[in-house]
Amino acid sequence: MRPTCAIRCLAIVLGIEVAFTSISTQRTRAAEPRVFILDAAQLHVAREMLRAGDKVLAPALEQLQRDADAALDAGPFSVVNKDLIPPSGDKHDYLSLAPYWWPDPKSPTGLPYIRRDGERNPEIYKIRNRLDLGEFADAVDTLSLAYYFTADERYADRAALLVRTWFLDPATRMNPNLRFGQGIPGINTGRGVGLIETRMFARVVDSIGLIENSAAWTGEDQRGMRAWFEEFLDWMLESDHGREEAARQNNHGTYYDVQVASFALFLDKRGLAAKVLRDVGDKRIAVQVAPDGRQPLELARTKAWSYSVGNLAGLMTLARLAEHVDVDLWNFKSQDGASIRAAIDFLAPFATQERKWTYQQMGGFDAELLRSLLYKAAVKYPDANYRENLSRLPKRNAASRANLLLSPLDPVSQLHKR
């Protein structure tokens, strides 16, 4: 559906008047944030609707503001906040342990550790870097979105402080490498798979785009972040760890590509982003997805549902990023029929309880994991039955942040929510 048509339909659904001249295809690019995974047009429309007095999106904005008010006290977070020193001797190096590796009970020292897939060793939480990275990304995400929708400089001020602390301040910054991510005691001090943890940096890139026009974000900040990601991207492309992760065929390879493409777009390296994204069809989708939509490498895990949904989310993120370089991954299909759409079709009946999940899923089955992906599918593939699938799921909470991120160009989601 074309944006202008979708907006008009949504206005009819909501019973509100919208100034179409300000939110139509005639709007200037300057009115939209420089984001790559988030949809700038959807964010812009949602903000304009709220400014016009929309009541349906209001609960989501109110909840976002409550979350942002709480995030004003979050952090600041830094990789130097850890007791264990990395093998380099430099606290500025990120450090984490492999989550599914445990002491060997047959060994007097417990070394070398052994793998128990799906079972998290609580020892990983003794090193704060992994936890702090997640909390940092969540806080910056919340604060930057709240700033975009409200123009409240308090939110931009805090988001900017958190970003500077993690990346730029000489006393607290993270070195732009991941040499010591997901190390295994007794085996190694770090692995390429540790890069799965920095997939959150792609969200930070979008957060910067949401606050870059605020008074809190300076030209020096922007130059500093470009320099940091330039060095980190080079490390990803050239280091042994980076190349190891790029070669992995499961979700790790997917999220490696998400990071490279996102960082390349942020750095205006359109050629690099286009190359990576053009290869996704044959290198990721055709390899990871069977013709019937199964993802065998994810189904082999002890949390097969979580990993299948997670990898599909990564593939759909790559399809979103590919839109920026005129590559269509949404409709890619390999010679034997592998596609994003096939992967969605395989998982959807389990979310709607038409079929029972028979693969292993430690920790329980959560159909809600697929909801946002089904919403995106309903927009990208309007000829399919994804809208009907959504009607079989519990209605989305009116205060859900997803209403701000996914709904504005999708009147069907609003109808389903009412």
Describe this structure in words.
With 418 residues, the chain is mainly alpha-helical. It is 52% helix and 3% strand. The chain contains 18 helices and four strands. It has helices spanning 3-14, 20-23, 40-51, 58-71, 129-150, 153-168, 201-211, 219-238, 240-247, 251-266, 270-288, 296-299, 304-322, 340-351, 371-380, 386-391, 402-406, 411-417; strands spanning 95-97, 101-102, 114-115, 180-183. The protein has a two-stranded parallel ribbon with strand order 1-4. It has a two-stranded antiparallel ribbon with strand order 2-3. Helix 8 (219-238) crosses helix 9 and helix 11 runs antiparallel to helix 13 (304-322). Residues 1-29 and 408-418 have low confidence and may be disordered.
Which tags fit this structure?
disordered C terminus; 4 strands; 18 helices; globular; two-stranded parallel ribbon
Widest beta sheet: strand line-up: 1-4
Query: What about the largest sheet?
Result: 2 strands, parallel
**What is the CA-CA span between the terminal residues?**
21 Å
Order of helices and strands: HHHHEEEHHEHHHHHHHHHHHH
Structural class: mainly alpha
Global Rg: 22 Å
Put simply, the count of helices is 18
Round the mean pLDDT to the nearest integer and report it: 90
Q: What is this entry, summarized?
A:
The protein is built from 18 helices and 4 strands.
SSE layout:
Layout: H1 3-14, H2 20-23, H3 40-51, H4 58-71, E1 95-97, E2 101-102, E3 114-115, H5 129-150, H6 153-168, E4 180-183, H7 201-211, H8 219-238, H9 240-247, H10 251-266, H11 270-288, H12 296-299, H13 304-322, H14 340-351, H15 371-380, H16 386-391, H17 402-406, H18 411-417
Parallel strand pairs: 1-4
Antiparallel strand pairs: 2-3
Helix pairs in contact: 1-18, 4-5, 5-6, 5-7, 6-7, 6-8, 8-9, 8-10, 9-10, 10-11, 10-13, 11-13, 13-14, 14-15
